[in-house]
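step 4 of 6: structure.
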Amino acid sequence: MKTAVIVFPASNCDRDMIVALEKITGHKPHIIWHQDEEIPPVDLIALPGGFSFGDYLRCGAMAARSPVTTKVIEHAGRGGNVIGICNGFQVLTETGLLPGALMRNESLKFVCKDARLRVENNDTPFTNAYSEGQIITVPVAHHDGNYFADDETLKALEGEGRVAFRYVDNAGQVTQASNPNGSRNNIAGIINRRKNILGMMPHPERLIEDAQGGTDGLGFFQSMINAIN
Amino acid sequence: MTPKITQDIKWNNNVNITPALVKEHGLSDDEYALCLKILGRTPTLTELGIFSVMWSEHCSYKSSKLHLKTLPTKAPWVIHGPGENAGVIDIGDNQALIFKMESHNHPSYIEPYQGAATGVGGILRDVFTMGARPIANMNALRFGAPDHPKTRHLLSGVVEGIGGYGNCVGVPTVGGETNFHPSYNGNILVNAMTVGLADQDKIFLSAAAGIGNPVIYVGSKTGRDGIHGATMASTEFTEDTEEKRPTVQVGDPFTEKLLIEACLELMSTDMVVAIQDMGAAGLTSSSVEMASGGGVGFAFNLDMVPQREEGMTPYEMMLSESQERMLIVLKPGREAEAKEIFDRWDLDFAVIGVITDTGNLTLTFKGEVVADIPTQPLADNSPEYDRPWIKTAPKADLNAADVTAPQDMKQALLKMIGSPNLCSRNWIWQQYDTQVMADTIQKPGGDAAVVRIHGTDKAVAITTDCTPRYCYADPFEGGKQAVAETWRNLTAVGATPLAITDCLNFGNPERPEIMGQFVGCIEGMREACIALDYPVVSGNVSLYNETNGTGIHPTPAIGGVGLFNDSSKMVTIAPKAEGEVLILIGETKGHLGASLYLDVMEGREEGRPPPVDLALEKKNGDFVRVQINDGSISACHDISDGGLYVALAEMVMASEIGMDITIDNGNTPLHAYAFGEDQGRYILSVSPEHRDEVLRNARAGGVTVQIIGKTTGASLTLTAADPISVSELVGNHQSWMPDYMSID
């Protein structure tokens, strides 16, 4: 699987994503600086976490208007796979590739902790290595992860199986206490209608080795390899 | 007093230097006489400003130097000790760890978010300016009493500021410590530590060299923020402290992140001769340190300094503490190549001067020389004081029999673990990105944080510790204990302790009793460093932590760093399974003097602190470390604040596995045995097949050891106490801080 990681000024999970992709695919990803005008042909483009351009405006708003982002949009338009993790998810909503918005956490505070996620749809290129309903642990670390969409959008997301991951408690139940940021319907990650774009707030790239406290993030990357081969 | 300089004077460098103006700049008569002698004439206003900040307590260490010199700083693994931007130690394979802890106390009290944020930014720059990529941040925080009206606001702002900066730059904040005590009501402490990783053949120092080489300014533009910040940090607070808000700098972590990447990229080439961040006293101290360190002069054209505001004067430019700026000496002819890197990162890049052979810092502005100071005497002949000090009077011993036993042991333990100084710090840690860089293998909450050396089997263990109530009761024992506790915490995860950085926070050194606390703590630290072969490689002193004549508890915060060659050997405080055997290492005498039990249960702060027997400390610690590295131990926890029962409760909460404990307290009152804070102790959790081996090894090494119980069930069952369920423990431990912070 050929991959590319886009680096914006103050992306800061780019290395983690590069390390994870290289470890899992066996190939070093292309590293694309935000001013680069071309992205080589790849199977997957990853928008990593961080604070692109400092996120002094709405998170991801500046990055969504970077020259390279038009190339990401073209890639997605051709049916190419795109993932956006954390800040990358914020960029994807700012470009309109994914619906909704990531608002400030309900607590108004940054939150970093292990979240329990339920795999809501395993029939996607990003989740097929998990079983449906599987409970996985993936860390969150964000200030603006409170997913919001209007009722109509939410209905479409739910009805079309486009909620990929949802925050749940240890027993797999959707509860307020297990929602780290106030997201509507405890949504942690969504996909587009064509199922080639995924955005999620949690960081699967941080949990791919036992030493990191678990390997629940591996399935995410394995899914993409499965989908492409 | 911060000088109150009128707009007129600021604009005019040809101002008359009056005795009143000199006094406003904080220079004593003797210091000003020395200034006149060095210059051979009356200083200009800009020069007076430069002398004032360079000779401030914060920059010159004039009250502390004499005593700091007594600390041990050498070991075969020390590459650079104190004197550089940060300490450097050898971790093998041509790799080095570069680290330091620094205070940002005064600004954080005035403006907690920006004060703490820029504290993190400043310490990051101290580390990456030496060529290291920062891999972990830590902190040591002290706040006033929870019921003080400012505490909630300060805690909230400081934690958000640390997170806001560290999270954005993408360096994990992996832990730290937080205490509350009324002595910090008027002066909180915000001590930030950064650990970085560099190749040993790519370490950069600040000494300038090469006559004619260009001197480059990179990073943010210079504004009027932070002027005289160093001077502010060198005086006591009074009622008009609020007026000092403009002396606090404003941080921009986005620019810092770009600056880290651009500087590391530049340093991966062969263009750099020397590099120095602009920290306290900004352009002044960075240029003076670089020039005097290299025995050369600098000639700057201040018109070339990138400026954020119009009409800035030389005085303002030299004293500004605007953040995210660096000064670099390049090899000749490499300017264009270097500029290309900074252009790509959208950072200002300006050639502001050259190296000269005059030995002077010569500043021109609009074609006129506004300052011309010999840098060597400015840096090296700075005042040094042997301030009078009196030894802290020893406190009387406290007899355990004079401390009331609790009516209900279970309720006592629940009260202890739910008290402000022992409760969970989750509310704080969750606001820090503890995992970015994906190498954090022990998160906050254990004895030490552990971060892998990327791409290797090695890992660094980091801890910050100090017990100020011990230091207050007995500075010598407290200083010893602070060092020993870091050593113990690194040992308890299985790491080999290598070196420390210190952040020495004290009151007004002009008061002999405060100076006595300082001298006592240094003596204790020195003794512990020598006994544990654990040198000081960097540090910082923060004095005048005092408001209206009341000083803080003496707080020599210690940042300890240890190494794993094989990080898979690491243990945590969480037992792995039921049926493990719990073994207590070290002697329990039931020392309740200066303990948290005394404070929490009786509201008393009395008695001597527990003495640290350094030979025993070393023996017990070395034994524990060997057992961990042999793979015989499944979990380990040192016993510190709150004593044995609190440590056991922490292990239960971490593992969510209960324990059945039976202790033999002999003639010691049970509550003293349970909550006494005797030093040099650990609890080991050992699977049954390793039990005999560990006991045998302990006895062979002369280590005091006893079996106190086993892991079992879902409750902590203690001698003379009703069983306490895991959920009850966790509930009590977790609730205090979120409840406290949710009150408006």
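step 5 of 6: annotate
 - The CA atoms of residues 491 and 625 of chain B lie 6 Å apart.
 - Chain B is about 35% helix and 20% strand.
step 6 of 6: archive
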